[in-house]
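Service request form, structural biology core

Requester: graduate student, group of Dr. S.
Request type: structure prediction, single chain
Budget code: on file
Notes: please return the result as structure tokens.

Sequence provided:
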Amino acid sequence: MVIVLHKEDCPDIPEHSLHVKVKKMDDLVDEVFSLMQKYKIPFHHVEPHNRNCPGLKFPLEELEHKLFILEH
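Core staff response, request fulfilled:
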């Protein structure tokens, strides 16, 4: 099971609770961490939808680092 990150205007976001729109980092961390706890998903199972969504400039490493800290 993975949590998939999407840019806000992505047309391919299914109505599934493990697909998350990217927003402000603090809000995103809170939402993703909540899903991680609820579904027992490790931080390294959070991934972008594809190369262009949420985009190459999205700070995935920063998000992973913050989630890692919260998880441990």
